[in-house]
Amino acid sequence: MIRLEKRAEPSQAWSLATPLVAVLATMVVGGLLFGALGTNPVEAIRTIFWEPLFGEFAFYYRPQLLVKGAPLVLIAIGLSLGFRAGIWNIGAEGQYIIGALTGAGVALAFYPLDAWFIFPLMVIAGALGGCAWAMIPAILKTRFGTNEILVSLMLVYVAEQLLASMSLGLMKNPEGFGFPGSRNLQQYDSAHNAELFAGTGMHWGVVAALIAVIFAYVLLNRHMLGYQIRLTGEAPRAARFAGVKPARLVLFCLGMSGALAGLAGLFEVSGPAGQVSIDFNVGYGFTAIIVAFLGRLHPVGILLAGGLMALTYIGGEIAQSQLGLPAAAIQAFQGMLLFFLLALDLLTNFRPRIGQTREAV
Amino acid sequence: MDLSAINPVLLIASLMVAATPLLLAAIGELVVEKAGVLNLGVEGMMIVGAISGFAIAVESGSPMLGFAAAALGGAVLSLLFALLTQFALANQVASGLALTLFGLGLSALMGQSYVGIKPPATAQLNIPVLSDLPVVGPILFGHDPVLYFGILLVALVWALLKFSRIGLILRAVGESHDAAHALGYKVVTIRVLAILFGGACAGLGGAYISLIRVPQWTEGMTAGVGWIALALVVFASWKPWRALLGAYLFGGITVLQLNLQAAGVAIPVEYLAMSPYLITILVLVILSADKSRAPGSLGKTFHASQ
Hints:
Order of helices and strands of chain A: EHHHHHHHHHHHHHHHE
Helix content of chain B: 55-70%
CATH class of chain A: Mainly Alpha
Number of strands of chain B: 0
Radius of gyration of chain A: 22 Å
Number of helices of chain A: 15
Shape of chain A: globular
Distance between the termini of chain B: 63 Å
Number of domains of chain A: 1
Oligomer: heterodimer
CATH architecture of chain B: Orthogonal Bundle
Helix content of chain A: 55-70%
Distance between the termini of chain A: 16 Å
CATH topology of chain B: ABC transporter involved in vitamin B12 uptake, BtuC
Radius of gyration of chain B: 19 Å
Largest sheet of chain B: none
Largest interface: A-B, 50 and 49 residues
Strand order of the largest sheet of chain A: 1-2
Number of domains of chain B: 1
CATH topology of chain A: ABC transporter involved in vitamin B12 uptake, BtuC
Number of helices of chain B: 12
């Protein structure tokens, strides 16, 4: 009989090993799933994980890795702060949309003015927009004790409707021949989040993501607030005695994750996406939840996990066009990864023992 | 704008239809939460139920077989959640989210060849005289059997929780798993059973959307109903009859909002479509003052060594 024995200390080794084992397990089970769909499993896994990096067209896919990874890392860093303290913002998708709307709104308001200050203003507006959207659940939680999980999620649907309304109404391109969607910001130089070095995929969003990683690392390891976040997550009672103010923490964690998600939205709308349109959001806000957990809620881990998840996105697209693997398969694949990760986490905190129970504990 | 185009009798009848998926999912989640488990995967279980039910109904031609498959599909998915939270002792919030993300992907995968197909129609109850009565007929006697089953389920859950020994044990496990464990009850077994029940109910609710309410299959068609069901449990203060009331209230808002869209009210469609979500938030705010009703061990992990 297998039984579990609680470890006195979480195992450091397993904590690092679980993401890797989870990825391997997902490859195996995901491969079986692809096999069941009639695709050669080895070929599918190779296409997803190898092709974007070292395949024939890798020169095209490698920059995409940065483009797709940056928003994931930006959002996941913000989410991880809250997740560590037991504050669950799962509405990042909504904050991402609102950030894009406020940022693009600034650009469209100034169109066609050509000035250096437009892009910085957009960045500020995007961060503030996302932050404000996240402040709704934050304030409702601190003022009324409302569950932030449900409120932040409901606001995703509200934001999606707002996005539809904007791209069909207020922000619609007046020269767009009646098609939905705003002016293309890629053709408006002052507002365009262009590649910093041509052909690398490196845009301001990537820079922001890297800064966020460093910032989060310093915050969590060298700052009082970071210490309070970790303390609240690991020992809520001790945190209360130590004088941590839960309301302040809720406002900070939600506000920060909202601002980062808003930034991600702004960099996307002004760069790779180019315009506000009905189908602008593609689920980065939800995938970032997986990224945050896969990265062990640690800034450096999130950076790596964001890269891996971007890889599955791009690899999934290649597999879609080359092997006819359905787009949804990759979504199920990503969800499966989170399952394995959570299940294997058991080994971090518990030690499996095989044999008879010695005595009642 | 022509508000007279809205027929109150049809409005109430369609309100009951709109409320049923919510009700089924909420009553299942209510039992799960009464056992002290917070399963945030309702949306995922609903959408998997929606496609399993749809597929089986189309293949077999029998909607009832479809509903059975939906319940099974939801329960199988919830078994994953049970394994994660009860045996692997994973965080319930994260596991629930994983279930939803996985369910959305899996359902899209399963449903690829079912887009644009019409499912077999579910027979409506037709009692010779009663169903033809004006006003009362379409409201009370003109629905499909699943709708009545939903109401029956509320009564059953209420009676079981309140009067039966099983209900008492379930509530004990939810209020304090340590005390229940000390008394010799199998905390994990009871919770797993509750989770499976919740999964089956959510699956049924999902299939109700794809087979009766809409009826067709589109990706992500549950569109947040599972999350509203979760809010509904809070709204109901974990009481079955109040869940029924809440479901009809939300169903009413959804239907009214659709009717207003059709009647051409001067409010843009998008803002009307937001309303159910905004009202859910409003209701949550109003009700969140009263936390005393929540089961004591809700969302906490149980391991016999602790």
